[in-house]
Amino acid sequence: MPILKPKIRGFICTTSHPDGCAAHVQEQIDYVKSQPALQNAPKKVLVIGSSTGYGLASRIVPAFGGGAATMGVFFEKEGTEAKPGSPGWYNSVAFEEKAKAEGLYARSFNGDAFSNEMKEQVIAAIKEDLGQVDMVVYSLASPRRTDPTDGQTYRSVLKPTGDTYTQHTLNTDKGTVEEVSIESATEQEIADTVKVMGGEDWKMWIDAMQEAGVLADNFQTVAYSYIGPEITWAVYTDGTIGRAKEHLEQTAAAMNDQFGEKTALVSVNKALVTQASSAIPVVPLYISILYKIMKEKGNHEGTIEQIQRLFTDHYCSADGPKLDEKGRIRIDDWEMEEDVQAAVLKVWESISTEKLASETDFAGYQKEFLKLFGFGLEGIDYDAETETLRPLPN
Length: 394
Ligand code: NAD
Hints:
With about 400 residues, the protein is an alpha/beta fold. It has one domain (about 10-370): NAD(P)-binding Rossmann-like Domain (Rossmann fold, 3-Layer(aba) Sandwich). Helices cover about 40% and strands about 15% of the residues. It has 13 helices and 13 strands. The strands form four sheets. A seven-stranded parallel beta sheet has the order 5-4-3-6-11-12-13, with helices on both faces. A two-stranded antiparallel ribbon has the order 1-2. Helix 2 runs parallel beside helix 3, helix 2 (about 55-65) crosses helix 10 and helix 9 (about 285-295) packs across helix 11. Bound molecules: nicotinamide-adenine-dinucleotide (NAD). Nicotinamide-adenine-dinucleotide binds near residues 112 and 272. Nicotinamide-adenine-dinucleotide binds near residues 52, 75, 142, 225 and 274. One of its GO terms (biological process) is fatty acid biosynthetic process. It catalyses: a 2,3-saturated acyl-CoA + NAD(+) = a (2E)-enoyl-CoA + NADH + H(+); a 2,3-saturated acyl-[ACP] + NAD(+) = a (2E)-enoyl-[ACP] + NADH + H(+).
């Protein structure tokens, strides 16, 4: 059995720690349990993209806060005897073990959510075990998608759609502030990013489930988006990914015409360290600055706190989800408060490698990043050999 240490390559860590991942899941469960139980929570929830980041939190909150039965879909790698699998695999194993230990129904599917086969498999399982689901969370973040209707594989890019964009960025490997210039995407790259990260697949899931009769009357579905500050707009909101998120919102509107108001919503979430966000240029530097300011203000949240608030303040509140003028849920409200953004901008304007330690929470960023892979958690013996073969419980 191997001894597992972090091996960081650019913005990913190529190793993970099964017990650390389980401890990370437990931390999130403990947080949910420390909060008042959810009232009127959905009881049967499907989470697509349930193994890490926002999707994992979206599985933990209704399960451990509301007693929901959950199904999860993800694309992860199981470990071998010699090598660890991906953290999302171990998170999912830990989630299922902990859910089942408390008598909660949990079933997971590892494979390509974009495929027809996965949709058929999940629908069959819902029919078999749950009959119907009352909530579908769509939380995929993927660099590619094979569209089952034409068999073509599309790749998403993170680029501006206007002029070449030059901005500060953080080399998270070296701990240096650098300048990055990103050239504008081609029309093809924009269209391909919309294909991967837009709403097409979300709607394919909902249509397939509707046709199969596995959606409860008054079901609800939510997908996640991001807006953030102007300094990141060129590469995010106004960039290729922003176009995809625009398509997500249009898809929600189309589904609401079909199924009724507030059935399908986009929730705009806070910028947080996840495997997906660490791949976006500029964003890790923004997050490092933001974390320091929000921690000092006392309103910093991680994915679990964000999703807890999504349920308590929106899905489980007596008047249901509260929406902005564009019909979106805003749990990025604390991030976007004027004083927070003004403070971020002030640091941003003169940030340099020398000021990284004193004016940002890069240390917190690094800690959070390692935790995504199960490293740096208390109570774990990182010098011990660890079993890397961890099957999902039956
Ligand atoms: P993440 O990388 O932590 O999670 C992605 C999930 O998608 C994982 O469960 C992964 O297994 C799954 N997945 C990827 N490809 C798949 C496939 N082909 N089939 C099945 N599962 C697949 O990402 P995240 O940051 O939690 O992002 C989730 C959503 O939240 C995205 O829509 C993202 O844009 C949005 N969001 C993220 C942030 C942020 O700062 N991280 C902020 C706001 C919104």
